[in-house]
Write a structure and sequence with these properties.
homotetramer, mainly alpha, Four Helix Bundle (Hemerythrin (Met), subunit A), Helix Hairpins, 66% helix, flat
């Protein structure tokens, strides 16, 4: 996002400043109005999905949905027009979310029901972090993402192991339990294995034979235990992150480092840092 | 809580010492009696909620409830009278809890049923830590709270992510499963998504279509895995706390503390420790 | 356990050596036979509880139960006779377990059904660690216990918080849901709150009103998140334990410590340790 | 796996290079074809287990199953023939998996239904790591395995504790709840205890008496809390691994490695690093 001096650059620059920046009074007002509109429109979609509410307020909610969609469409077009490099916006994360936030209403004309996908508008609320100048929140979010990225290989290996276990366990349980107890096919048995390993345990399908219950017990204890693996991985990455945060400044006198961020003097020789 | 010498300051000071302090014989006795009363009154409320018990002992329990309420009301008034700064007590955590511990009985005269909120009296039992002089317990509790506070931003980001996931997943499942399988509205589907992501898995609502079960599987594995995130955050904060705990040495020159264990000089003023 | 030289100390010493020690051939043989008897007798109790099995083999299993009980009773008496200080054995952990392992059979003559408590015999299998000379296993078990003991105060604070939450949440849900949906009393609602907070989620009781489901969602996310607290506590204790395990030997030349256990030379000055 | 220069060593060497190596064009092509065949054959087995699909495409799927089995059998024989030391392959992990991947089809001629065990073929997909030259993935997997191996004793102690708890709790609940509520035998009650302790909570069996619900609550809170133990163990091992990973410097004098980052001298021979 380019930051330019407001001047005699015409209406485009003024629009850009209002909808892309949050520094001016107009920009702040616009952003707050936007967040409120997003939340209201998501609530409207949710209410519309409740049969009793739709029965009474169906017309009003349909109108509200279209009003918000038209408003968001205008905003989307204004964003494209006012920015210097429209394509970098269109294909950015926010650009795609902004488009997905209006598409379902138009799609619902062709495929009824798809308007409920409008809840994806909730993602637009992420902009809230910008308005509130929650720089620290963004830093923390970045740190979390960085730690998860650093452990992606270990997590892939873990997920592959989990998938292998549930596929094989699903097939065995299909043979052991048979179709009588809900294990009607291998994919369904795999679904059951996932429900069990992740300790969700709906109980919509559950083993009834002694052998099946024994195997399920093994799977449960396994699921109960191996949760330790991703937890361990992520914890270690987080603790690493913390260490990196530590000051890397070294003392100009003795050359030692490892000082705290608030240190004014070297803790080894007392020299001013 | 002010600590004053008992003397010829009149009955107010004596009352204050008995109900606010736990150092004297009278104060200790009062506190033990208070804890017992609290536990008994909470048990009475619980018993009263069991239909079979209320059927037989309803009158007695109603009487007990009023006796305890009157006693606690007198105690509440005495506390306000005997303390120097009544408002700082009234609006303190314990002041509000003490008020909430008597209000429901009076409210139940207007709105039957609210007397069950009396279980909030259980919070009064927190005073037990004071009597038993479990200073260490209070220290530990403070340390836990401190660590959780230190990680509040990361946890906010985590909760926001979780909420976004359950809202979007709820809407998708509403479309995929339809009202037939219990997914009667988006809010209900979001409730299901929370039940699933947190690995609670009641099974009151569970997907029945193959596509729904596939999406649910993804949500379950996600919920199973991302529990690692808050765990990692909190663990790192706890381990940090442990480290900070070690050295409580303060600088003889500037008086600041928070030095590392291997520090030879004060990191703020450079003075030898 | 005293270790004495076998000599002309009579039959008592010989009995003692066989049943208390595992160093001699006889002692080892006795211990292996004991473990097998324990496992067999526990299996017999389990089988006896299955109606179909009891119907056919009830007599045989009853006989087996009495045979094992008589054998274990003789062993118990022999242990008391052969040891120098009988009371220190009787009131030790193993002494009490040994008694509990025979009592239920005799009690079942008075109170039918109590014989199923014989499964407590499984605790006797703990002796297996002694026979197999799994010294390391005992060390590891001690380390785990030590870490858990070190964090007992924090865990008490945590448990107290959890109990307070489930009591208050139980009372609120009792008011919100009413008896119609299974929330028939406050104790039952508290049971539901525990089932939910611990993410077990049987589904035998589950909220049906929108408000109840909202409150339940809050409880679930809370339960999902605060599991991080005990995990963090225990992890930090374990990591501390690990550090303590590190060699505390200091270099005789430069005096620095922190050497690995396999270090032969000081890593700072190269002097022989 | 021996790596030899391709030359005039006959067709055996050429076959070996294609099916065992992934460096040449032919070898890579073979491996990609193999992975695709494995995935397709596993999908075919899964589809065949769905009654509706088998009803329509049963014949085709049966044919596909046999085609893949014949292909994999030929590949298995080729592997044995082309390798120098056939037995070291046959009894290796991959050798056994390759055999298990074809056996069920032949077994299904004798015992109908066993063909579903063919999903074990999914294990063959592990070869994918070799083709894609995901050396890092293998390193990460090895690190995870190493950490789990290092904590195997602690985990054994933990599992033994869990087993003891569920056996004793199962027997008590069998007595408390009786056969009426699904606790029909001690083994079944133990199954319930595992379902509860691991926080899976199907709800197929759940306590109905007040005492049973109280005991179940204790078990749930226990299960909710002790998950911290394996998590703590594994996390500490992982963090250790991380530390060990850092320094890979080996001593110029004695060649040993595993030195700390702050080491100046080799800890084995004292030579300057």
């Amino acid at each position: 996002m380019l930051k330019e001096k407001p001047g005699n650059n015409g209406w485009r620059d003024q629009v850009h400043e209002v909808i892309f920046e949050a520094d001016t009074y107009g920009g702040k007002l616009f952003d707050i109005g936007l967040i409120l509109s997003i939340i209201l429109s998501v609530l409207a979609v949710m209410l519309d999905s409740i049969a009793e509410v739709r029965h009474i307020f169906g017309g009003e909610l349909y109108l509200i949905e279209w009003i918000f969609t038209v408003l968001f469409s205008i905003e989307y077009i204004m964003r494209i027009i006012s920015i210097k490099k429209p394509f970098s916006y269109i294909f950015s994360f926010y650009g795609i979310v902004d488009l997905l936030a209006i598409l379902p209403t138009f799609l619902s004309l062709l495929f009824p029901g798809t308007q409920y996908l409008l809840v994806i508008r909730i993602l637009r609320v992420l902009r809230i972090f910008r308005i509130l100048k929650f720089v620290q929140y963004i830093t923390e979010a970045k740190m979390l993402r960085q730690a998860l990225l650093a452990s992606r290989r270990k997590i892939t290996v873990f997920l592959f192991t989990v998938l292998t276990v549930v596929v094989i366990m699903g097939a065995i349980m299909y043979l052991v339990e048979g179709a009588g107890n809900g294990f009607t096919s291998i994919p369904k048995s795999i679904y059951w294995a996932i429900v069990t390993l992740t300790t969700v345990g709906y109980g919509d399908i559950s083993p009834a034979t002694p052998l099946g219950q024994m195997l399920a017990s093994v799977l449960m204890i396994m699921g109960y235990g191996i949760i330790a693996v991703p937890t361990g991985i992520v914890t270690v990455e987080f603790s690493r992150l913390k260490d990196n945060q530590v000051n890397t400044q070294s003392c100009p006198a003795c050359g030692k480092d490892g000082h705290d961020n608030d240190a004014v003097h070297c803790k080894y020789c007392g020299h001013k840092l």
